[in-house]
Design brief:
Elements (H helix, E strand, L loop, with lengths): L2 E9 L23 H15 L1 E8 L8 H10 L4 E6 L4 H10 L4 E5 L5 H8 L5 H13 L4 E7 L5 H14 L2 E6 L18 H10 L2 E6 L3 E6 L4 E6 L16 E5 L3 E3 L9 E2 L5 H15 L3
Parallel strand pairs: 1-2, 1-10, 2-3, 3-4, 4-5, 5-6, 6-9
Antiparallel strand pairs: 7-8, 8-9, 10-11, 11-12
Length: about 290
């Protein structure tokens, strides 16, 4: 088994203020990881345990000063699928990113399609037109797009229907994500505000989608009328390691040099300070043991 995704937390900064933001469970101040450091780390992880995808996330990765250089450095290795998770509010930067590489999936986090609902969910005003401009641009350039839709208690069936239909028409992948509560957003998100997977499934059933595959963490729905499917993902477990629902398919590298194997924080972290080959080797060796990869 190899690691499916290295999630690179480029920056903790974001221009939105979503009430449910979990920032991948880790906040940091200092950035030490250079584009070359990142490429070296990816190569080291790949040679030790195998790696399929590098995903740039945050915060809002497009606010990271050296995002384009990092994408370029990893892309130059020509080994990994690339993706970025963005809130889509910076269409000009998205165009710049696409000028660096077209071989990148762009996942746009979008909680709602109407202005009032979007403003409420993101705690901001006036950004939705930019997000729509980004989506239009990406679609016109035939870039692989995925909508990441965090399903909240307030998410309406009508609102979800609109997002699902837009995804079908514009051929975007659609991923409904269960809200996550971790040490960073625990004060803002109470457990009772998190809809259960069951209630989310019921909402999609009422949209005409039915469940075709179920595991502890992922359900795939298919619209039988239109041959369109999408995923419902339990983003990160909140049960801790003993009940981890799936394989250890992700690891996290923050730009301050911290490496984690779980966004929930129960697992030991590793730090990379010198980025020498011997340090990378000892961290990837520790990861190999920690992940219990054969
Ligand atoms: S767009 Fe993403 S990173 Fe920014 S506040 Fe919302 S959830 Fe957090």
């Amino acid at each position: 088994m190899s690691i499916r995704t290295l999630r690179v937390l480029c920056t903790p900064r974001c221009n939105l203020n979503c009430s449910y933001c979990c920032r991948e469970g880790y906040a940091f101040q200092k950035t030490v990881c250079t584009p070359k450091n990142l490429a070296d780390f990816c190569a080291a992880v790949d040679s030790r345990v195998g790696l399929e995808r590098v995903k740039f996330t945050g915060g809002e990765p497009l606010l990271c000063e050296n995002l384009f250089e990092m994408v370029e450095a990893v892309g130059d290795l020509r080994k990994f699928k690339l993706s970025v998770v963005t809130n889509g509010t910076h269409p000009a930067k998205i165009a710049e990113l696409i000028s660096v590489t077209r071989e990148i999936q762009v996942a746009v986090s979008l909680p709602a399609w109407t202005r009032a609902e979007y403003n409420r969910a993101t705690g901001t005003k006036g950004f939705l037109p930019q997000v729509k401009a980004s989506l239009k641009y990406l679609t016109s350039k035939e870039i692989a797009v995925r909508l990441n839709v965090v399903v909240r208690k307030e998410s309406s069936v009508q609102g979800l229907r609109h997002l699902v239909e837009k995804s079908r028409i514009d051929e975007w992948d659609f991923r409904a994500i269960e809200m996550t509560r971790n040490s960073l957003n625990r004060k803002a998100v109470s457990a009772k505000d998190i809809p259960s997977l069951y209630s989310i499934q019921k909402r999609f059933n009422s949209l005409g989608y039915y469940q075709t595959r179920d595991s502890a963490s992922t359900t795939l729905f298919t619209n039988h009328n239109r041959d369109h499917s999408f995923e419902l993902t339990k983003a990160f477990c909140r049960d801790g390691c003993t009940r981890c629902p799936q394989d250890k398919s992700c690891i996290w590298l923050a730009a301050d040099g911290t490496v984690r194997t779980c966004a929930w924080g129960n697992k030991p972290d590793y730090r990379i300070d010198t980025w020498t080959m011997s340090e990378l080797d000892s961290v990837t060796h520790a990861l190999e043991n920690d992940l219990r990869l054969p």
